[in-house]
Amino acid sequence: MTILTLAGSPSARSRSSSLLRHVAQALARHGHEVSEIGLRDLPAQDLVEGLYAGPAAAALRARVSAASVVVVATPIYKASFAGGLKALLDLLDEKALAGKIVLPLGTGGSAAHLLALEYGLKPVLSALGARHILAGVYATDKEVGFGEDGLPRIVEAIRERLDEAVASVLALAGSARRAAANEALGRREAVAALG
Ligand SMILES: Cc1cc2nc3c(=O)[nH]c(=O)nc-3n(C[C@H](O)[C@H](O)[C@H](O)COP(=O)(O)O)c2cc1C
């Protein structure tokens, strides 16, 4: 299974990207191929101008297209998901997330905006064709931070929720694989019956 993580924070030291990495490491431990791309990997001008025809946008679309699971992380800005992430998502094709499993993650200064993933991010993911959007994981800045060594610190309750989200991704991917295999078998049997 190919997994892509999309980091929506403009910060080099990012709390939301820490959640993303926890999930990426857990999925990699299960033997899956995980790669990362983020807002900071795209030229700012391409993002601001929505340069769909540019090479960076084309590379982004190819990476998304190759993934069967997309994990998206965003900081909460002004009670919604980050505008920079929206600029990145705007470079994708109309149904870029169709058929993919999508896991949204978010961090905010306050627990008051935890529903921003539901009313802000999920409708956009859905507009991009995603039909398998898992329950997101939201953490406050008190729950995810950095130690004096500069390394990320995520409280246990959030780590547990991230691990549960990983288990849901794996379960959903497993049932999608089984459904596809059964469908292929059904098609082969129908062709054989015809003759
Ligand atoms: C411009 C700006 C606006 C913000 N607005 C909110 C907000 O409305 N609600 C909230 O809970 N946190 C808000 N925050 C705090 C960030 O969401 C929070 O620190 C988050 O963990 C940052 O994630 P990052 O480190 O991945 O960039 C805001 C931060 C910035 C810089």
From TrEMBL:
Provide a Gene Ontology MF annotation, just one.
FMN reductase (NADPH) activity
Instruction: Mention one GO biological process in which this protein takes part, according to its record.
Output: alkanesulfonate catabolic process
Q: What is its EC number?
A: 1.5.1.38
Q: Which Gene3D superfamilies match?
A: 3.40.50.360
Which keywords, in A-to-Z order, does the entry hold? Flavoprotein, FMN, Oxidoreductase
The UniProt transmembrane annotation reads none
Q: InterPro entries of this UniProt entry?
A: Flavoprotein-like_sf, FMN_Rdtase-like_dom, NAD(P)H-dep_FMN_reductase, NADPH-dep_FMN_reduc_SsuE
Every NADPH-dependent FMN reductase-like domain range: 1-142
Entry similarity comment: Belongs to the SsuE family.
Cross-referenced NCBIfam families, in alphabetical order? FMN_reduc_SsuE (TIGR03567)
Its recorded name reads FMN reductase (NADPH)
Organism of provenance: Bordetella pseudohinzii
Q: What is the lineage of its organism?
A: Bacteria, Pseudomonadati, Pseudomonadota, Betaproteobacteria, Burkholderiales
- Which gene carries the instructions for this protein? ssuE
